[in-house]
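In response to the reviewer comment on reproducibility (Comment 2.3), we provide here a single inverse folding case reported in full, input and output, so that an independent group could reproduce the run without further information from us. The structure tokens appear first.
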């Protein structure tokens, strides 16, 4: 399958049995039949599917690492995304937050679509679970590229402004996909340590630390 830019496509990344199992899980637990749009589901409460999801995420990370030659880790696991009829997504890039001056407050703010956590996204990876819907193509306007993925197909690409992408309106049926965002270990450490961790900062005596490291 031809590659365009750094948009990478891996047909049959998930086999038919795995695709069927994920869809059956979502139907059985009613996790994707919520009344609101943008249903995004983490599978942490279900041990069996959670273990499968962790293995899947690790497999995707290896694929991204092998292609780009950069060690990556997921930012927040893998989620199952349901696109309802009438949903679409305007062109955007995953790690580029847009800053603007709020005329009401005079403060500099970021767009709500890509909030602060998005700055840490290096790559996006999506595996599609079905094709029995109409519309819903993922498209990259700057690359003149439009894709209607096949079930089990993995698509991954950088999160920079060079890979602006959107999703065309779903006109019939529901569109299901697994989505994972990846960052580097260093950026994830910064995110967890200095953004998510609300505990007090600890002062380290560097002279004492140096002495301990050099002993023995």
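Designed residues, in position order:
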């Amino acid at each position: 399958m031809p590659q365009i830019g750094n948009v990478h496509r891996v047909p049959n990344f998930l086999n038919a049995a795995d695709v069927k199992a994920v869809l059956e899980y979502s139907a059985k637990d009613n996790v994707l039949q919520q009344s609101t749009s943008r249903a995004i589901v983490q599978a942490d409460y279900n041990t069996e599917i959670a273990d499968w999801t962790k293995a899947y995420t690790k497999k995707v990370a290896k694929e991204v690492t092998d292609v780009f030659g950069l060690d990556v880790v997921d930012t927040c696991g893998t989620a199952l995304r349901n696109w309802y009829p009438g949903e679409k997504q305007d062109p955007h890039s995953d790690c580029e937050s847009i800053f603007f001056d709020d005329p009401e407050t005079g403060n500099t703010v970021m767009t709500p679509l890509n909030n602060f956590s998005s700055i840490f996204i290096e790559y996006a990876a999506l595996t599609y679970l079905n094709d029995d819907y109409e519309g819903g193509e993922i498209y990259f306007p700057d690359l003149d590229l439009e894709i209607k993925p096949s079930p089990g197909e993995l698509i991954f690409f950088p999160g920079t402004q060079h890979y602006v992408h959107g999703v065309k309106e779903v006109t019939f049926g529901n569109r299901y996909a697994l989505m994972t965002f990846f960052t580097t270990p260093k950026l994830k450490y910064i995110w967890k340590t200095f953004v998510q961790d609300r505990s007090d900062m600890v002062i380290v005596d560097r002279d004492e630390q140096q002495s301990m490291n050099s002993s023995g």
